[in-house]
């Protein structure tokens, strides 16, 4: 140990070099395995939209500030525009299309309709993916908490009161 703290030891960081040519990756999306040839710099959002035709997640800002591209990786909310597709190999990706795989909509999707929680609808998939996770995480205690935990999802139409009402309705059903 040095005077400034513990000695840092170098871990084996052997990495597989990839790129710039396309590489074959396998993504598990909504319970289905997909083999894709993508450049290493392709975002998860672009892989979903352009290679798998899953267009629910939207490209809003492409900078990670709006939340329109929110999906889950292993059940955790991520911004698909900031996540490299190849880093998702070996993980389960869930999109809005896989939220309710049966013919019936998810309860939060129904609540969004019942509470008029969308106007233009562009942000809605990201809002719903974030809201379902927020309820499951236990962060839907009151409006202030919902507002804080949903702050990464922007609605340009300002339907926030209706979005919170939909979240409260589903929270209170569970």
TrEMBL record:
InterPro entries: 2Fe-2S-bd, 2Fe-2S-bd_dom_sf, 2Fe-2S_ferredoxin-like_sf, 2Fe-2S_ferredoxin-type, 2Fe2S_fd_BS, Aldehyde_Oxdr_Iron-Sulfur, Beta-grasp_dom_sf. Residues 23-99 form the 2Fe-2S ferredoxin-type domain. Keywords: 2Fe-2S, Iron, Iron-sulfur, Metal-binding, Oxidoreductase. This is (2Fe-2S)-binding protein. SUPFAM superfamilies: 2Fe-2S ferredoxin-like, CO dehydrogenase ISP C-domain like. Signal peptide: none annotated. CDD domains: fer2 (cd00207). GO terms for molecular function: 2 iron, 2 sulfur cluster binding; metal ion binding; oxidoreductase activity, acting on the aldehyde or oxo group of donors. Pathway: Alkaloid degradation; nicotine degradation.
């Amino acid at each position: 140990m040095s005077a400034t703290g513990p000695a840092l030891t170098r871990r084996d960081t052997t990495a597989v070099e990839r790129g710039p040519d396309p590489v074959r990756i396998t993504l598990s999306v909504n319970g289905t395995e997909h083999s894709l040839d993508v450049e290493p710099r392709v975002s998860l959002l672009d892989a979903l939209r352009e290679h798998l035709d899953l267009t629910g997640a939207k490209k809003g800002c492409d900078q990670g500030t709006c939340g329109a591209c929110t999906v889950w990786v292993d059940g955790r909310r991520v911004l698909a525009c900031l996540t490299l597709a190849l880093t998702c190999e070996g993980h389960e990706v869930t999109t809005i299309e896989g939220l309710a795989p049966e013919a019936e909509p998810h309860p939060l999707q129904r609540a969004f309709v019942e509470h008029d929680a969308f106007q233009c609808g562009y942000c809605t998939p990201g809002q719903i993916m974030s809201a379902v996770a927020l309820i499951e995480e236990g962060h839907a205690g009151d409006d202030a908490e919902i507002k804080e935990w949903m702050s990464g999802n922007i609605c340009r139409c300002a339907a926030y009161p209706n979005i919170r009402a939909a979240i409260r309705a589903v929270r209170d059903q569970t």
